């Protein structure tokens, strides 16, 4: 545990709109990366990414999310 860190990343959202209205929903899914990407590879930390499902596969008007990340020091 020496020189390692734990991060708890949380987010929540609420939309008062109708569930049938697409612009009132939150959509989650995928890492957000592709093979021609130029952006940071750690986008799995963003609230809308959801590894293990297809892009925008999960939708809803309310959500909560918690992610625990353990960063270990490099091996030498």
Written description of the protein model:
The protein is mainly beta and 76 residues long. The protein has one domain. 0% of the residues lie in helices and 34% in strands. The chain is built from no helices and 4 strands. It has strands at residues 5-14, 26-28, 58-60, 62-71. The strands form 2 sheets. Strands 1-4 form a two-stranded antiparallel ribbon. It has a two-stranded antiparallel sheet with strand order 2-3. The radius of gyration is 16 Å and the shape is flat.
Record keyword descriptors for this entry.
single chain; mainly beta; two-stranded antiparallel ribbon; flat; 4 strands; 34% strand; 76 residues
> What integer value in Å does the Rg equal?
16 Å
The residue ranges in which pLDDT falls below 50 over 5 or more consecutive positions are none
Integer average pLDDT: 80
Instruction: Work out the helix count.
Output: 0
Shape, per Cα inertia axes: flat
Helix-strand category: mainly beta
What is the succession of H and E elements?
Answer: EEEE
Instruction: Give a count of the beta strands, DSSP E runs of length 2 or more.
Output: 4
Oligomerization category of the chains in this entry: single chain
């Amino acid at each position: 545990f020496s020189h390692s860190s734990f991060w708890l990343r949380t987010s929540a959202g609420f939309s008062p709109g109708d569930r049938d209205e697409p612009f009132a929903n939150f959509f989650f899914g995928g890492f957000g990366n592709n093979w021609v990407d130029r952006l940071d590879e750690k986008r799995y930390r963003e609230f809308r990414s959801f590894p293990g499902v297809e892009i925008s596969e999960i939708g809803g008007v309310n959500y909560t999310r918690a992610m625990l990340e353990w960063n270990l020091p490099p091996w030498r």
